[in-house]
Every structure is written in C-alpha cells, then in structure tokens.
Amino acid sequence: MRALKRYDRRGFTLVELMIVVAIIGVLAALAIFGVRRYLASAKSSEAKNTVGAISRGAVAAFERETSNSEILPAGGSSAAATHSLCASAEAVPTTVPSGGKYQPRSGPDEDFEHGTETEGWPCLRFAMTQPIYFQYHYYSGARVPEQTDPPAISATNYFEAGAVGNLDADTPPVYSVFTRLGAVDDATGQLTVATQVHIEREYE
C-alpha cells in the first residue's frame, strides 16, 4: 500500500512537461497559419466573384442589340442591329488599396457610376456599394498592366476584367492579380469568355 501511495503522488517530469509545451506550440502555430490563410482566402474570394460578375456584365452588354435611331422612307429598311463590347471603364479606386478597404462613392459620375450607355460601368450595368479590398478594372482592347504572366490572346476585339490588390500591404508592393478574358471571334462574331479566372500571387 505504501508503494502505491508514493507512486500516486509522483508529479510530471521536466521532459514530459517540455513535450506537452512543444505539442501546444505546434498546434497554436498551425491554428494561426490556418486562420491567416482562411482570412486571405475570404478576401481573394471577393476578387474572384467580382471579376466573374464584371465578365457576365460584359457578355450581357455584348448580347444586347444596338440599333441606330432612323427615320425610314416608305418601303425602306433600317440598318441591321449590331453587337459591340462596352468601351473601357476607369479603374475603381484610382489607386490599389494597401491592406485595407475602399468605400466606393455612389454620387453621379463617381466610381462605378462613371460612364455612359456604351462606355464604362453603366454600360456593363455593374456597381458595388460595399467596401472593397481590390482595385477593379474593365478594359476593352487592353490588358491589366500589373500582370507578369498574362494569358495569351490573338483576337483584336476583346475585353479583360480584372482585380488588383495588395492584401499584405508590403513595400514595395507585390500585387495579387485576378483577370478574365473575353474575345469576339472575327469569323462568327460570337463572344467567348475564358473558362476560369487567371490568378497571379493570390495572397499578396
């Protein structure tokens, strides 16, 4: 009985305590890494979803038939309806947010309200009112300049929707870039959009 009692009162050795502390440290490091990656993924999801929405707006705008207003003589015929891409939009905001969010302005001719029925964001019928982590672009016949390895394109009539961010606010900035291309086939006149968003440095 005395031997059993002495054994019951024995404490942890230093080695056992060090092993427990090491295990807790490893688990804490993994948890911190997982949380950071989760937060970064949530931010990059904003860019992916928004670039997709801008692309859908470009497709819808192209599919709308455009006809000139004409006064026809008796027996005359109007010109055929045409399809065309929206002209480029100004980037919103004008500079890439650095680790924070930008609140879009919603006044007349500001941010996503800037443009016309054939140009910019109103042509795309696209707008955002909630704070955003990224600078958003829509270029017709041009590319997002922050890309280092852009996908190739041979078409002359195309658009590129894009998002550029600096989520970790590093200096000098290393940008994360999300883009999606759409091109009009010269032979058929059909608009085709890339199968997925092209991503460079997703968590920067």
Automatic annotation (TrEMBL):
Annotated InterPro entries: N_methyl_site, Pilin-like
Database matches in NCBIfam families: IV_pilin_GFxxxE (TIGR02532)
SUPFAM superfamilies recorded: Pili subunits
Positions of region (Disordered): 96-116
Transmembrane segments: 12-35
Keywords per UniProt: Membrane, Transmembrane, Transmembrane helix
Name of this chain's protein: Fimbiral protein pilA
Pfam families (UniProt xref): N_methyl (PF07963)
